[in-house]
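Hi Y.,

Following your request, here is the sequence exactly as I used it, all 516 residues.
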Amino acid sequence: MALTFDDYGVSWDEVFRWGGGDAKLRYYNALVSGNIEAAGDYRAKVDHYPGLVDLPLAFLRNQLGAPDYLVGHAWTAAFGLLGIAGAMALAKVLGGRWAALLAGISLALYPRYWGHAFFNPKDIPFAAMYVWGLWALALALRDRRRDWRSALCFGALAGACMSVRVGGLLLLCYAGLFIFLQLVYARVCIGVAYFKRQAWESLRWGAVATALAFLFLLIFWPSAHQNPFVTTAGAVSAVSHFGWQGEVLFDGVSYPASEVPRRYLPAMLARTAPDFWWWLAMGCVAWLLCNAKLWRKLWSEHVAQLLVAFAVLFPLAYIMVRKSIVYDGARHVLFLIPPSAALLGCWSVNAYSALQSKYGRWAALLWATPSLGLMLWTVADMARLHPYEYIYYNRLSGGVAGAKDRFETDYWGVAFREAADILSNELPPRERPWRLTMEPPIDALVARFGKPVVPPPSLVKPFLGEHFELVSGDQQPDFYIASSRNGYHDMRDGKVLLSIARDGVVLVVVKEFSAQ
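Below is the corresponding structure, written out as tokens. Let me know if you'd prefer a different format.
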């Protein structure tokens, strides 16, 4: 990550997150200085997201003096690495050291996660804090620890997750549900005295953890400083009914985001999971189906595994049943990938041990060896796609080439950077700057989307030399740079000067033309 974080372009969302962070920083500066009236004005202009990620990033961008995108990529990559560490920590709780090692490798070799880990300023930090919150809760459930230390640990991590996105409230809901079920088990299977002691300790534990989580959230959420209860309820409702009016390409058909089929999300997860995940998962399923001992002792000895499985399946089921708006592949559920990697590591190690115990070492190696080959194949795929690992599709679905004109590829627009770099390096300076436009014909945009949706200049501006200027489409540009998403690259005629592609799929084109 340290060697490659400067290879990635700027994504659509980054510039908006930078603006959100700057607004929050102005609010806190006014608040700390005692200017309550100005703080109130700034708070009214702040977006509805909590600021655990945006606020420190705004401070770092203002202090370091480096390009915004570079600081942002390093900051997001730190969360990406934190997510890998969290998957390893959770897998160790579930299945020991070898499970942790396999979980870390499996997540690092998940191309969609790795690619997003450099420029996705919302989904990656949330994924990292989600898996660490699950780690703290899994420890408390596994060991039935209801002491102050575990309450503070879980409360702080749940609060950190909520301070990235309020949807982290799920962690508190999981805690309440599973602690209640543990109490029911204690009452039925252990005894009344033990149940009463556990009930009191659990009540105290839950109160401390919840109070700390909401205190943490309140610190980083300017929108809640005026009315925390109304703001929290409104944010949870907004998360559940989030609206977006764009189009989604799925299986060759462009759907309005509100009309995407329910199968969209599981289909995208299936197509974007690495091939070796599929191989390991098939072995795990066979082991789970044949392991009667595990099912008999699932609640008493494997409650942490049950928690993580529930934390992966419940959000997915909820989104599908409620038909929540999702788009851009599976990026909205990236937070499910680290705990899935932990489960995959745990169950794969257990399946290997069971196979070795029953049929011998060579039988176990016969299952494990192909997964190593598929891992190396995934490494080769990631190297070939770099720095667009996030457009990966597995070979079972036809690869990136098979996704052409059927599924989204560079929906973030990060390939604009490579095209801008080439233009800046290949075209010499001249007396009048080269004019470059990102703007398709406005009438074509309005006819298709009902409004002029133009890519933000931040996708190319940091990478253009001084001999270039960005202009609107009616200012006689020399070149037109456009993404292939939504057919933007075909909305203007001209000679194709260069194209950025991977596996035969065009991501961005630059056309040379004379303005009419």
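The two ends are 45 Å apart (CA to CA).

Thanks again,
Q.
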